[in-house]
Design goal:
This protein has about 230 residues and is of the alpha/beta class. Helix content is about 50%, strand content about 20%. The relative contact order is 0.15. The structure holds S-adenosylmethionine.
């Protein structure tokens, strides 16, 4: 039974990271996540160093909530949101149009081999994406490559060490029709949060990719960890 459980978790984790799943199911996630982590987006927008005319990369932008927020905070900056799912890119482009934000663009691009020249961006942000990269080190090394020396990275991910109580609160907000709450809790515990990063492992991964002056914290508003670091 324990083996079957492990096998199901492994299978679901593989599915979780498939681009096709984001093509098909992305809107289910996109519709629910904003209200749950809006304060995290605001935190990142406030904590990024003043970037008036900067080029900013949002790696694994999904629907583009953070890209659009950053672009509206800094009207002279240029934000590029990338995602490997073309359908997520289209969803983000629709969202940008709805919000009438002009200094932001979305494109299909894989974090593991970014189609940008070295030292192109002044800052990079990424929320909830790194756990899906088949090679997190390679993704972080790519981000390091495309950042200018002195550029800032802010990366956030679901907290592997979240308590059951905090995860239950998150599950209530994530509610998916016809999926019983206990099943959703099991899935998030074992397949999402359980296969994610802790504050320490995320900071260590960022460090291994060559970033310095690393600060990390757990968010109070939602079960995510955030790492801020510099090239
Ligand atoms: C959990 S969603 C987070 C989306 C968005 N950052 C947010 O805050 O809502 C993860 C996103 O990362 C994208 N993604 C996963 N692996 C990727 C890769 N290797 N390259 C580019 N995007 C990737 C997925 O398509 C998905 O849109």
């Amino acid at each position: 039974m324990a083996n079957l459980n492990k096998w199901i978790i492994r299978l679901l984790t593989r599915l979780r990271d498939e681009r096709m799943i984001w093509d098909l199911m992305g809107s289910l996630y996109n519709r629910r996540i904003y209200d749950l982590i809006a304060e995290l987006y605001t935190h990142i927008a406030q904590q990024l160093p003043s970037l008036r005319t900067a080029r900013i990369l949002d790696a694994g932008a999904g629907q583009g909530y953070l890209s659009v927020l950053l672009a509206s905070h800094s009207p002279d900056a240029q934000v590029t949101g990338i995602d490997y799912s073309l359908i997520q890119v289209r969803r983000a482009e629709n969202y940008r149009r709805q919000k009438k934000v002009l200094n932001c663009a979305f494109e299909q691009n894989n974090i593991l081999s970014l189609a940008f020249q070295d030292a192109f961006f002044d800052a990079t942000v990424s929320v909830g994406s790194i756990k899906h990269w088949p090679d997190a080190h390679r993704g972080l090394t790519e981000i390091h490559r495309v950042l200018k020396p002195g550029g800032c990275l802010m990366i956030a991910e679901t907290d592997r060490e979240v308590s059951d109580d905090n995860l239950r609160k998150f599950v209530k907000g994530f509610h998916i029709p016809f999926v019983p709450e206990d099943l959703l809790f099991w899935g998030l515990r074992h397949v999402v949060f359980g296969q994610s990063f802790s504050q320490d492992t995320l900071a260590a991964a960022v460090n291994r990719a060559g970033f310095r002056n690393i600060e990390s914290r757990k968010m109070d508003c939602c079960p995510y960890v955030v790492v801020k670091a510099w090239k």
